[in-house]
Amino acid sequence: MKRKTLTQYLVEQQRAAHALSAEVRLLVEIVSRACKTISHAVSKGALGGVLGSLESENVQGEVQKKLDVMSNEVLLEANEWGGHLAAMASEEMETIHLIPNRYPKGEFLLLFDPLDGSSNIDVNVSIGTIFSVLRAPASASGREITEEDFLQPGTTQVVAGYAIYGPQTMLVLTIGQGVVAFTLDREMGSWILTSENIRIPEDTKEFSINMSNMRHWAPPVRKYIDECLAGKTGERGKDFNMRWIASMVADVHRLITRGGIFMYPWDSREPNKPGKLRLMYEANPMSMLVEQAGGAATDGNQRILDIQPTSLHQRVGVVLGSKNEVERVTRYHHEAK
Ligand code: AHM
Ligand code: MG
């Protein structure tokens, strides 16, 4: 079988569909190269001295793991010098990272969650890197980029993707032309295209939610999950299975592969926060991937990609995956109003 590399895929897209510019191609190549470095560090585990926590906390007040900080640095360093970016933002940094003056600047903004699923690092369970690419607003040309320049709805994303560090390391990507997946050939050090035109089935019998929060959920979420749990003899007339890995990358990868619904909804533990997950680093890129694969993504009430962000580290409730199930949960929210 003739193997197609990530570079070949990107060059083909650049030529045929005119779906991406040379600058975006370089950007994707650099991000994916950084993910290879992170994958290598992850796979070394204790042997590489990368496990465990640091003394520091990130902007959300969460204790940082060594790998959180290392992955953040890998992504920053890899992306600084190429001339394709105007600035970066990361879940692990309080404010945006400008490209140092010694390097040329490009027209794109890169956002990332350098290591998602941090609670799984030390227990050898799948984790990942999530990224999103925006275009710097035209009004920003000739002046320094500000945080406000990043506050664009998810519909404006140019590229979204994630790398999953699991039994295999994979890169799942959309440039707005469907979803493709590459598997890392560790011996060759190259990303090989292993799935094209990925489609999420519209129906599913598998849900993914942290059930330990059940008592804190809003009634529409409770109603939906109660119906799933009632099984064949209940309202839904079918038995449901449940999975919760606590790495969004791994839970979303499963539903991108075989369907399912993933939820991290608002709950009453922190009534003033709309949810746990971050709009710009987690929900937006995952929603673009899911929609590009034929699924749907809402915050319970509205399409995630339509939300106008008001701050960089904004949180959001998340319901995404198989279209008919996401629409059902969203309908329950509307009916409860
Ligand atoms: P992180 O970015 O600090 O790793 O947190 C995000 C993760 C998601 O990957 C996952 O879906 C969720 O947090 C799990 O949360 P919980 O431990 O409450 O189940
Ligand atoms: Mg995360």
From TrEMBL:
Pathway: Carbohydrate biosynthesis
Xref: InterPro entries: FBPase_C_dom (IPR044015), FBPase_class-1 (IPR000146), FBPase_N (IPR033391), FBPtase (IPR028343)
Cytoplasm listed as a keyword: yes
Pfam families named among the record's database cross-references: FBPase (PF00316), FBPase_C (PF18913)
Binding residues for Mg(2+) 2: 113, 116, 282
Cell compartments where the protein resides: Cytoplasm
Name of the top EC class for this enzyme: hydrolase
Keyword presence, Metal-binding: yes
Gene Ontology annotations for the cellular component aspect, listed alphabetically: cytosol
Cofactor(s) required, per the database record: Mg(2+)
Binding-site positions, substrate: 116-119, 210, 276
Signal peptide per UniProt: none
Assembly mode: Homotetramer.
Entry's family note: Belongs to the FBPase class 1 family.
Protein name in UniProt: Fructose-1,6-bisphosphatase class 1
Gene giving rise to this polypeptide: fbp
